[in-house]
Design goal:
The chain is α+β, with helices and mostly antiparallel strands. The protein is built from 5 helices and 10 strands. Strands 1, 2, 3, 4, 5, 6, 7, 8, 9 and 10 form a 10-stranded mixed β-sheet that branches. Strand 2 and strand 3 form a beta hairpin. The mean pLDDT is 97.
Length: 245
């Protein structure tokens, strides 16, 4: 048996999330369906770097699976893409060490949240970015972001529904990229809690719009209570951008 590592991108707008769910269309379900077809009906289980919610996209999701097929590693993307729907694509594949694990071997992840400024909804962007119709104070958002960098307990920026007990994470970088009518907020860290990026984004947007002071960001972090943070930003603007090992 050989372990295959794949980089996968997908448009999450028509999926109920990454992970298999009964009666729902999911990314994992479609990938495992394609793998079963390649393996003549035999089920092949996959593991991913992490789950993404309904409506969330990926440019650099990483998965692995084990196979007994003798396919050259450079041929795996074409083999899988020929069987996958158009909203999923395998961009890279390689044989990995048997000890490699798509989830447990992760060293760093990067998420990006995409925003566009317009008074009118764009039919070409509304599934792929959050529309904002008011101006944002980017300097205030940058100042607030600086206060949460480093290793902290991010309970305040985590969904109350999470079952994870250890909420300490290291947030290495938050960057703001502006181009034309768009703003992209980039988050890099050693790992992220459930809805962490979307709650951070929602809070930063409230600061950028003047509803909150930048100094509140550290106060929210220190209170370790979800009720003090901002609203959870919608899923359509979020992308799992890159996973590093």
């Amino acid at each position: 048996m050989k372990r295959v590592k794949c980089t996968v991108s997908y448009d999450g707008s028509r999926f109920a999330g990454y992970q298999v769910q009964p009666g729902q269309r999911t990314v994992q379900q479609e990938i495992e369906k394609a793998l079963a077809a390649l393996h003549k009906g035999r089920p092949v289980k996959t593991a991913a770097s992490g789950r993404t919610d309904a409506g969330v996209h990926a440019m650099g999701q990483v998965i692995h699976f084990d196979t007994d097929l003798s396919i050259p590693e450079t041929s795996w993307p074409a083999a899988l893409n020929s069987l996958l729907p158009g909203d999923i694509s395998v961009s890279k594949a390689a044989y990995a060490d048997p000890a490699f694990h798509a989830r447990y071997s992760v060293k760093e992840k990067e998420y990006r949240y995409r925003i566009y400024f317009s008074h009118v909804r764009s039919p070409f962007k509304h599934r792929y970015a959050l529309r904002v119709w008011y101006s944002l104070d980017i300097e205030a958002m940058e100042a607030a972001a600086e206060t949460v960098l480093g290793t902290h307990d991010f309970t305040s920026f985590c969904s109350a529904k999470t079952e994870v007990e250890d909420k300490i994470r290291t947030l290495k970088e938050i960057r703001f990229l502006q181009q034309d009518d768009e703003l992209v907020i980039c988050f890099k860290g050693n790992g992220f809690l459930y809805n962490m990026v979307r709650i951070l984004t929602g809070t930063l947007l409230e600061i950028g719009s003047g509803k909150r002071d930048p100094g509140e960001m550290r106060e929210i972090l220190e209170k370790r209570n979800r009720i003090y943070a901002g609203k959870t930003a919608p899923p359509e603007g979020l992308y799992l951008w890159k996973v590093s090992y």
